[in-house]
Here is the input.
Amino acid sequence: MVIPRRSRSGAAQRSAAAPSAPAGPVAPRATFSLSEEETFELGRAFGRGIRGGEIVLLQGDLGLGKTVFARGVAAALGIAPEDVSSPSFTLVQEYTGGRIPMFHVDLYRIDAAEEIGTLGLEEIVSAGAVVVVEWGEKLPPYLRRDAVTVRFHDVGEGSRRIEILPTSGAPSRASGDA
Here is the structure.
């Protein structure tokens, strides 16, 4: 559990609303971000459409804004964004206190699919939490099936192209799969 901290800077000033994300199915879209603030606001706008039980896969190279986007999602859920950090060494961080619990997962250091199975992601999602997964491409296909994918691309000069893609429609887990 995370101990809430006081806001360190202009969190209230950053709350200037970006357009809210549509409720329900996500329509594919792409946008450009020129700053951390824009990436944060995109995450916040996306997070407004979250209802619970979603898996959000964040994909892209190091330093492209995956954790900043996750902070924006947290803010939309009513979780203090300054509490959200990259969970690289702990793998899973739980954030409560908002309208929906958020679990922030970082698979960067995971090499074997068997390790992912021990994280309990299926149970977390079925309990109604949102799971934001950095390096989500490492998840087995059956876990990516109903996930929304957010891809980050470096387009130079500090600019990022961010694509939000609807569920992948990957095949269901085969019967008897462990």
